[in-house]
Amino acid sequence: MNWKYVTVISALAGFAAALPAKADQLDTIMSAKTLRCATYADVPPFSSPDPKTREMAGFDVDLCKAIANELGVKAEIKPISVEARVPEVKLGRVDITVANLAYTLSRAEQIQFSDPYYIAKEMLVVLGDDAGKSKTDYVGQRLASTKGSTSELAIKLNKSDPLTFQDTGSAYLAVQQGKARGMVANTMTTTLLVNQSKTKGKQMRMIEDPLLLEPVGIGMQKEQPALTAKINAILHKLDDTGEINRIWEKWLGPNTEYKMTRTEKVVPISELKFDPIP
To answer: What pLDDT is attached to residue 18?
Structure first.
């Protein structure tokens, strides 16, 4: 027997055993009695400052609070930019990201997604007098979106030319001012913008066929099976009790300016039929 070899192996094993194990994020949350939740800084109706209270408010904020309530801890809302949604949770600066976060292959390589709680659609809006009828009419055309979003990816996948901005309002103005032929955003945002354009600025309309279908879930760090299982269990419970629908109705439902109905149920992403984007 090569005792020198055995000694080296034993030393390496001892060193490995001495390395600290990756912290259990769920235990950390429960010990701190706080769920650090990343949401948009200013993207209504998901998360934006309330004009009266200046507190963050919106669908994602209420969902985060509902999850924290199920955990029996306090929700700490951290407003972030669109492009920071993945890095913030990946680096452990927040516990979860609840910010209309759509599943993509590149994001799934970096972070863990929960079971989706709805299916988003990336839609194209153009000026009312634009001659285009379908998304193929905009191949090679300049389309606006927010930087680092799946809307930007949708534009590229359509073989169009993305013109990106830090916020949705700037992308909308780019179309109004003729700097872009159209803009791409989720259905909720595009519905609102089309409605607003009827009374302000140049009227806009929505192209019917979606550029992309996107399952939306909650982002967490990888290799956190306890936290992942707990968040999924909570989402299923909130769905079964109707709480997610109640939050949806409050911010996005038929009695809001978005006039949208949620028909999905929380299901594992493996059960969905869609083409994941890169």
So the answer is: 44
What is the rounded radius of gyration, in angstroms, for the C-alpha atoms of the chain?
A: 22
Which tokens is 85 given?
A: 């949604």
d(CA 172, CA 142): 13
Q: What single-letter amino acid sits at 133?
A: K
DSSP string, 66-116: HHHHHHTSEEEEEEE-GGGHHHHHHTTSSSEEEEEEE--HHHHHHSEE---
CB neighbours of residue 205 within 10 Å: 18
Separation CA 68–CA 155 (nearest Å) = 35
User: Nearest 10 degrees: CA dihedral of 265, 268, 271, 274?
Assistant: 80
Mean per-residue pLDDT, 157-164: 96
Contact 217, 239 (CB under 8 A): no
This prediction's pTM: 0.74
Cβ-Cβ contacts under 8 Å for 261 (sequence gap 6 or more)? 253, 254
> Which two structure tokens, joined as six digits, stand for 105?
């292959």
Label the pairing between strands 212-220 and 112-113.
antiparallel
Q: Using one digit for the tens of pLDDT, what is the confidence trace for 72-102?
A: 999 999 999 988 999 999 999 999 999 999 9
CA–CA gap between residue 74 and residue 54 (Å, rounded): 19
Range with lowest mean pLDDT among 20-29, 169-178, 257-266: 20-29
Task: Tell me the pLDDT tens digit for each residue of 179-232.
Answer: 999 999 988 889 889 988 999 999 999 999 999 888 999 999 999 999 999 999
